[in-house]
């Protein structure tokens, strides 16, 4: 059995009158690829924002390895090894792809590190080595998304949170992103992704957590989840 890298207990987030996340529990094993699915507005991005520290918990607890994250600001969570890849990548447009990834490497742990080796490794994991010398300006949506993963990977995270990495990608780009996320895990980083593309999410994930209206309604293997009547009713039906 592998260690639990991230756990949540009674995780709850209220925005004034609205309960966006309620009593959600999770245990993500180190080395896994987990999915997080559910209808729009279910609270998926909010949950990721609670893990990164962008939002503070209303109640409950999130632990990263044995550490309670409550007192850690976002940058300390980054330093501890939690990275987030955003759907909209905002690279420095005038810099090359390699330079953009190198910035990620420099924001990683400030220990003695060879930034060039880390950068090349991240480019290779994301499958964008051949784009390394192009400026970020004018990259396709698919290439930008891979650049976003490469920048996150260059910080050498232990956990990568990816919010809808395949949204808006064509089937070829989606397949490349799936491969990219598999490479991230191969390298030893645990991955938790929000994704609406069910083909992608079921092909890549070991297990999937389903939330609806802020509550966890199911968790299991892709096969268990797609056959779960509650999941079909809340999300997959029609
Ligand atoms: P998902 O990512 O699953 O589509 P979100 O986590 O973005 O859902 O949103 C969950 C609910 O929380 C929605 O009703 C949304 O409007 C609300 N919400 C998210 N962020 C905020 C915020 N900063 N202030 C108020 N309400 C918010
Ligand atoms: Mg969202």
Automatic annotation (TrEMBL):
Under Gene Ontology molecular function, one entry of this record is: ATP binding
Q: Name one Pfam family in it.
A: ABC_tran
Specify whether Cytoplasm is a keyword of the entry: no
This chain's source organism reads Pseudohoeflea coraliihabitans
**InterPro entries assigned to the protein according to its UniProt record, in alphabetical order:** AAA+_ATPase (IPR003593), ABC_AA/LPS_Transport (IPR051120), ABC_transporter-like_ATP-bd (IPR003439), BCA_ABC_TP_C (IPR032823)
Keywords, A to Z? ATP-binding, Nucleotide-binding, Transport
Would the keyword Transport be found if you checked this record's keyword annotation?
yes
Superkingdom of this protein's organism: Bacteria
The protein here is known as ABC transporter ATP-binding protein
Using the record's annotation, list all stretches that form the ABC transporter domain: 6-238
